[in-house]
Fold this protein.
Amino acid sequence: MLIIMKPNSTPQQIEAVVNTVKAHKLTPHITHGVETTIIAAVGEFHTPSTDPFEVLDGVESVKRISQPFKLGSRQVHPENSVFPIDGFNVGGNDIVVIAGPCAVESKSQILETAHAVREAGANALRGGVFKPRTSPYAFQGLGEEGLEYLAEAREQTGMPIVVEIMSQVQLDLMLKYVDVFQVGARNMQNFNLLRMLGETRKSVLLKRGLSATIEELLMSAEYILAGGNKQVILCERGIRTFETSTRNTTDINAIPVLKNLTHLPVILDPSHATGHADYVAPIARAGIAAGADGIIVEVHPDPAKAASDGKQSLKPEKFAEMVKQVKAIAEVMGRRIAPINKPVTAGW
Amino acid sequence: MLIIMKPNSTPQQIEAVVNTVKAHKLTPHITHGVETTIIAAVGEFHTPSTDPFEVLDGVESVKRISQPFKLGSRQVHPENSVFPIDGFNVGGNDIVVIAGPCAVESKSQILETAHAVREAGANALRGGVFKPRTSPYAFQGLGEEGLEYLAEAREQTGMPIVVEIMSQVQLDLMLKYVDVFQVGARNMQNFNLLRMLGETRKSVLLKRGLSATIEELLMSAEYILAGGNKQVILCERGIRTFETSTRNTTDINAIPVLKNLTHLPVILDPSHATGHADYVAPIARAGIAAGADGIIVEVHPDPAKAASDGKQSLKPEKFAEMVKQVKAIAEVMGRRIAPINKPVTAGW
Amino acid sequence: MLIIMKPNSTPQQIEAVVNTVKAHKLTPHITHGVETTIIAAVGEFHTPSTDPFEVLDGVESVKRISQPFKLGSRQVHPENSVFPIDGFNVGGNDIVVIAGPCAVESKSQILETAHAVREAGANALRGGVFKPRTSPYAFQGLGEEGLEYLAEAREQTGMPIVVEIMSQVQLDLMLKYVDVFQVGARNMQNFNLLRMLGETRKSVLLKRGLSATIEELLMSAEYILAGGNKQVILCERGIRTFETSTRNTTDINAIPVLKNLTHLPVILDPSHATGHADYVAPIARAGIAAGADGIIVEVHPDPAKAASDGKQSLKPEKFAEMVKQVKAIAEVMGRRIAPINKPVTAGW
Amino acid sequence: MLIIMKPNSTPQQIEAVVNTVKAHKLTPHITHGVETTIIAAVGEFHTPSTDPFEVLDGVESVKRISQPFKLGSRQVHPENSVFPIDGFNVGGNDIVVIAGPCAVESKSQILETAHAVREAGANALRGGVFKPRTSPYAFQGLGEEGLEYLAEAREQTGMPIVVEIMSQVQLDLMLKYVDVFQVGARNMQNFNLLRMLGETRKSVLLKRGLSATIEELLMSAEYILAGGNKQVILCERGIRTFETSTRNTTDINAIPVLKNLTHLPVILDPSHATGHADYVAPIARAGIAAGADGIIVEVHPDPAKAASDGKQSLKPEKFAEMVKQVKAIAEVMGRRIAPINKPVTAGW
């Protein structure tokens, strides 16, 4: 930590800073410049907070040197984290393609979609059963009934299932069904929920918040990792900016930045990141070309009748086209879409 | 709702839109323009979603006409909502001044602060007991012990207490203590929590999310109002923008915009909106001058020792100066700081 | 300047940094920490660029310590800059109220507006004669004819005139007429134009760009100050954010932040900062309450017929109401609206 | 245009709107809804402004139906615009790769770079000769001397040259040298400059402003197209958002959105869009995968000694690697990097 003093700071103020540095069990190194004095606080340091220094009299600003995240940092763990979801690995050379409807609406809808996306090349199935809607007057999800349908779809297609958890009270129920917990953008800083998921040993797909920085995303991952759960997948899903021609702005830079900062797998959600079915395929291709370890895509057999997010959902045939393109880009990158090691056990 | 067709849309596509309009029990009115056709969907309409229309073939865009929020709308309820917190009214001519530390740290800290802010002119006390921190390694709050200290501070000073609720599981405990539930920026779209608070009959101070639009804030209020709880106070607390010289950007425009759109009381949090103690007073004055019904301000007896948010906390003497300025601005606006109708029962 | 090395940087890399520091005639101070090494570059330094250090191998990041602006800095010049516009002073205790139409449209329009705003209490007149419009198909301004009308309005009302300059080729013409050059948001980083205005000895009202940081605004002022022209007025006029309920987001924080960082006068444009006539008065009041040295407001005798910006223009009677409110807030702040020392010489 | 009346608007107000519609030679179509009245204004309409309607009493809001840009619209001109730069075509199946230093610094620097990038596969050369710097204390460019060096580089390598124009006064000089005028982000709304370039018959590479919407970029292109110059190339170069881990946020969505809205060629600048040499190659690949018609990349023989933008400049060998990757992605997309039809006439 670097504490930069104001140009006219007094020796007493500098001394107070030095004492605070020592009180935090750090060693102060003082540099007297022409305009100002700088105090470097060196040593083991477990809290990233600059607050106790910023409030001292005579302090101009405080700058952190080390990254505030540790367990997720590539500096600490240089090799990629690779871990299995049911049937294949994430974070290595293989690419994960998660697909399915925004919400599970009926048994036939989810089974039809599951078979269609598996046939098109997907290797995991997504589907929401608790829906957080902006309006209190909209469809709110099927709950446990939806989980049962998803489990049946897994049974038939061999694909693991990815389901969003929205509250601590849903954990016990969901543990019985899901393979991967999804934490949505709105819950990225629901620290109680994150800490609870850190106690489980199931994979967590953690979505970046609408206006969260990349560093904040990594700090949220830290909550899960700190509990001993090392199976965290990060997901860029678009950020909020001034541009209104798309629902969100895909922060494609976040893909190589995250791959540089962390050893965790990083995937892209081109559906939420654009909000328009027409733009999903180009942005999915861009994500893989930029180095993403996978994609998560909304697919619905009849988007015009979808209970939610119809506008950004692909029809199965459009999804199949997209997978072909993604596959071709993956090959150029020296990668492949991970194959599922389980048979399809029922038709549709 | 207005459905605007693409320039080259076919009669079949227009008919499909008309049928969908009718299926939603709305009446279609068609206008054939030179470049395009517009279909107005007229009638009672309970869902704000434009999704079912946007996904139809041939549709260029869909524009909502009516506001998606109803219960909070000034069109529906033209008069200001005025309701009592323990001891005085909010939303009328009087101004509420809520003050206190970010976190309750000890009995002496909260009692000292409570007496100091009451003496300076505050009429309600704030203090967090569950702290959502960006880092898993930071102080996480005192829990019920903190609630007890707050209750004692209320007892001694006569000020109602405002405490943040962060999870559904905290409700029963908090109901025994708090006068006003605060919903923090990160939980503005925690719809399960909002719905639960709508079932209570305690006032709710709902903070705008870091990157939530004004319309989304009003939609979140709708969740609480829909449960029958009409005592919702909206709070602007700064939004995230590209500017980094302050912690957030105070959206001062939101004050008159909200006062125009809704009948609910609107207050400002200049502490989070700026992040610097030096800027709290000017922005508090600006908020009242712009028409806010109150302010909520962080005060700490010794900011340099605060467990959190020390940088933006005012010392009691600075807070007292600020209250004098706010009072003077309020008088120019024809308003006053609401007096508390309860005596101070213990000294500090 | 602080150069922070990567954790695994080599002695050779550190030496290369040290040599680069010396090559820039700075003195290196090295701190070896547990995780990393920090090199402070101390001394007189004329360029704010961190580039030559950031590109060196082994460098993690480079942090500037001193402010990149000098002439505008309050550290360098602690007292407020106060300077006369024709008839009164700016930057001292008095407040400037600049009013007038977006564009000069006709002789009668500008004379009528000038008399109305002077009567209401304005002390300077604004009006555009070259209009930069987003669309090539819109009204583009009256040019010199407009300048003549403005000069006549000054003659009749005694108010100095503020006119936007948009290009270097307009300088000679405008020098004959205007009292204050306005540089619009889109030209805030038109450095050739700024440098040219630095050569004149007329006041410059420099508007913040739509997405310019406060620091960038101060760097642009530096271009004018560096030419020897010390009469620079800074203007906050709203920034672009994700919020769409107003045209821009007033960065009210910028008022106290700028007053803290610089000795230059700071004013607010509530018309562009909101884009709605209904919100101009509350935001003008907020600006003065936050410490602004003045306001610039769009006024039009018949907004429905305005060639541009009608939506955000006040009718003269609404402007008169606003001035009364601003005056009352100014008094609370211990200030007053600057009086004009010249008589009205003709009626309207 | 759709004019939506307030719920309580009067018949007189509706009549005033109808009259204004007719005064603009449009035909009004009135729909009386349950809550409100809507007036559709139908007909040929040459101005995109909604202002004259928004200021009328009783009007809630006004919504444009048709796009405000015409000449650049794909609705008007469904086929891709394809046009030659010296030696090859832009906008068709072939991809343009423009490379070179931020600033021309010396004859040897630009010749060395030109030969290196041509050998690596670039087909056009960039280099700035007038540098707009944020600080008045930084390097400002070589001017005509730089143009002469660029011309010599073109002579030797056969590559056309792309140079930024910053002011109207530079036009005559630059016309003698450059093949493609670049308009920088800060000048995207310098309408006088755009109009002047519309009078020339040289290609214009128009960069999106830092905080310009996609629609505003297309409106700026309209200024050039309206002058009869149809050779406009649009360039996404990153937008300003809250994320600070990269210099800008690449709006990768803008690539497919622009390809959908306009027939003009669209390219990407991964250097400015990221600001870090390490992220240039992944984002260049992403751009081509998303459908861009080319890229423009900063290359410098010795980034550590670059007068500007060294941090984001690639060394020639890194650039050569990137071109190989871009070529492979282009092939997957069924495209190729355009070959130059001119010989190299001198070595380096």
Q: What stands out?
A: The first strand of chain D starts at residue 2 and ends at 5. Residues 237 and 269 of chain D are 5 Å apart (CA to CA). Chain D has two domains: 2-63, 83-337. DSSP finds eleven helices and 15 strands in chain D.
